[in-house]
Amino acid sequence: MEPLFEVVVFLAIATLGAALARKLGLLAPILLVVVGLALSFVPGFPQVRLDPDLVLVGILPPLLYVAALETSVPAFRLNLRPILLLAVGLVIFTAFAVGLVVHLLLPAVPFAVCLALGAVVAPPDAVAATAVARRIGLPRRVVTILEGESLINDATALVLLRVATMATIGTSVGVGDVAWEVLVATGGGIVMGLLGVVVFGFLHKRITDPLLDNAVSLIVPFAVVFAAEEIHASGVVAVVVTGLGIGHKMPLLMSAASRLQIGAFWRLVRFLLEGLVFLLVGLQLREVVQDLDEPLGFLAAITGAVLVTVFLTRFAWLFPATYLARLVPRVRQRDPAPLAKFPVVIGWAGMRGVVTLAAALALPLTLAQDRPYPRQLFIWLAFAVIVATLVGQGATLPAVARRLKLPPDDPVQDALSAAGVQQQASRAARERLDELAESAPTAVVERLRRVSQERTNVAWERLGGTERETPSQAYGRLRQEMIDAEREVFRAARDSGRIPEEVLVRAYRDLDLEESLLRREEES
């Protein structure tokens, strides 16, 4: 019972931390890391040792999957060049830069193991990027690039880590071996991901029960990862490909009830896992520092050198990657050069997270011929990068974004586009209604025509100002009062024994659905 009790305690702390962060106006990931750091030294508090396999196979896949489900495939494809430059090019550049700096400071340690450390600290975290970027309202394209980078860069780093680790334990690694490793990991991951789209798309298409749809959706990321790992392919790539494919086709694969239930389910899973991940990262501090035996001065020097390298390499790569590509006329014409503030904020958003710590814990215990190396120091360096980037950069990212005054997405243009498409959709709906009008009473047909027209009117109302209450807002306010009155009548009837509990549940379900629609229209 003790492990289960600890999990419940951690989830409770994560939930309370997230609630406190919202009340204080802070970012929950930052607060939870700080709480974990403090709790790691509380006497008697459970000491948690993260299992790398648990993180890479048990926690990361569902988080990547839900992030991929919500990622726009057209937007991802449109920004594929900057995403790949960051997710592949920058990861390799950072890994070699960090590896070189560490090797210069520790010349007795082979470059291969220093490169392994570089691969560990190179990729910004998928959870951190998604958790922070969306919450501070960055422009949509910046969020897409950051999310796309974080979806792919783990695969690049883990492949590079695998190759470097092979060299550290004495395995001969040549150009052909590296090429084969990349081909198997990336190509195999893409194949397994596409296979996941076909297999689970087929299942979702034929399942009509929302509960079964939900159960299958929970199985998908784990099944895809296990299948990919079985052939030594990248589970990260496989999960991302499957998530992108299923998410893009979801309107054709699932019923409305299934989509609503799956959306609510994955929001809960992501909320709990994100909170748990950031809390667990902070709780590792006592475990990380207790075996360190390096002199404090040297420890501070090498930690500072790695942190500076990680920070500067991102900017050193971003600006040339952003502006040199525009020297190509075709690229410049299709995608004009952005203002310098955009690469600055993308550079500042390079937070590391739990994947970095899990990869560090997976470093080999010894080198070839059982030669020792400062493994605990490397784990400390990875942990220091996580805390410094997540707490330092993550906490200051909102202020940096405000200081730079990034031009926000134009809400008027969004509303105009939505209204235009809604008008086309309503026209198509009325044309379909006209085809079927003879099969229904005239009063029903007229009522449906009014509903269709009202949906169009609501869309156009959003283009107006917010100084006065629109007709749809007045409708929502009054209908909410009516729903509250209806609920009270049903509750009183249940309490007095005039209706059974089942009748109350059905009535509340219908009223709850209508209220959720009203709230959605208010938020939009």
List the helices and strands and how they pair.
Layout: H1 2-24, H2 28-39, H3 52-69, H4 73-78, H5 80-105, H6 111-121, H7 126-133, H8 140-168, H9 175-206, H10 210-230, H11 235-253, H12 256-283, H13 285-289, H14 296-323, H15 329-334, H16 341-348, H17 354-361, H18 375-404, H19 411-436, H20 442-461, H21 471-495, H22 501-523
CATH class of the largest domain: Mainly Alpha
Rg calc: 26 Å
The number of distinct helices, counting runs of at least 4 residues, comes to 22
Q: What percentage of the residues does DSSP assign to strands (E)?
A: under 5%
Tally of separate domains: 3
Write up what this structure looks like:
The chain has 3 domains: 1-37 and 50-409, Na+/H+ antiporter like fold (Up-down Bundle); 410-467; 482-523. It has 524 residues and is an all-alpha fold. The longest helix has 32 residues, at 175-206. Helix 5 runs antiparallel to helix 14 and helix 19 (411-436) packs antiparallel against helix 20. Helices cover 79% and strands 0% of the residues. The two termini are 45 Å apart. It has helices at residues 2-24, 28-39, 52-69, 73-78, 80-105, 111-121, 126-133, 140-168, 175-206, 210-230, 235-253, 256-283, 285-289, 296-323, 329-334, 341-348, 354-361, 375-404, 411-436, 442-461, 471-495, 501-523. It is globular.
